[in-house]
Amino acid sequence: MGIDEFFANLWSDYVASTPQAEKIKQAFEAKGERVVNDHVAFRTLALEPIRLKALEPHLLAVGYTPYEPYDFAAKKLSAYGYLPPEPDMPRVFLSELRVDELSDASAKILRGLAEQVDAERVKDPSILWSGRLWDPVSWEDYQTLLAESEYAAWVATIGIRPNHFTIAVNYLEQHAGVEEVLQTVEGLGYKVNDSGGRVKGSPDVLLEQGSTLADRMMAPFADGQEREVPTCYYEFAKRYPTPSGELYPGFVAQSADKIFESTNVAKSGS
Ligand code: OOG
Ligand code: NI
C-alpha cells in the first residue's frame, strides 16, 4: 500500500468518529488556509499481539524512521516519535499503556481484550484503522478502567485507530500562532482542552500545541446498551527552528502529557 492510500484510509476512519475534524478542516480551507498535517497519533496496549513493536512495522513499511522515545511515568505510558519519508508529510506519535503496571483488576480486563485479537490480523496495515478488535466491555469493567486510566478506558471502547490528526500551524497564513487557531476553532463552536493551559509548550522548547476536546459517540457495552464515550480530537501544532535551521522534529513529553487529556471523560463533550 502506498503512503497516500495509507493516509486516505486513516483520515476516513478518523472523521467517521470525529466529525469535528472534517468541519474544522473545511472551515480553515474556506478561509483560504492550506491545511497540512503535522502528525497523526495512535494508542495501544503493551500486550501481545498489539503492542507498539507489533504496530511499528506498518509505519516502517511506508517509509517512517524511528526518532525518539518518550515516557509518561504517572500515566504509565511509553511512546515513540517517527519521522516521515518526506519533510512535508505527517510525523507519527505511537503510544502504548504499560498494562503490567496497573492494578490486577484493570490488567486482567485489558488482557481479556488483547487475547481476543488474532495475531495474523495485526500483520495487515489496516490494523491501524481497525477500531475495537474485541467484544464490548461491561459497564462495570469500563468504570474500573476509567478510575485508574482514562487511556485504558479509551482503548477498550475505541480500539486501534488514529487518535488525532494535527494541523501544522506553520503553513497557515492568517493564524500566527496556536492561540489564534484555538480562537477560530472556538468561534466554530468547539471546546478547547485547557489542561496545562490552552497553549502547551513555548518557543523555548521549539513546539507549541493546542487541541480540541474529543467528540463523543454512542458505543456498545456488554449488556447490549449503548452509552456515550469520548472518541477523538483535533490538534494544532507550531514548530520552531533548531539551531541548524530545520524545524524541531520531535515531541515534548511535558506538553504531550496534557494533550492526552483531550479524551478525558469529564472534559470531552463538544
Ligand atoms: C497523544 C497525546 C500526545 C502530542 O502531540 O504530544 C500528542 C494521545 O492523546 O494519544 O499527541
Ligand atoms: Ni499530538
TrEMBL record:
Belongs to the 2-oxoadipate dioxygenase/decarboxylase family. Pfam families: HGLS. This is 2-oxoadipate dioxygenase/decarboxylase. The keyword Oxidoreductase applies. InterPro entries: HGLS (IPR009770). It comes from the Bacteria. Keywords: Dioxygenase, Iron, Oxidoreductase. Its EC number is 1.13.11.93. One of its GO terms (molecular function) is dioxygenase activity. Its cofactor is Fe(2+).
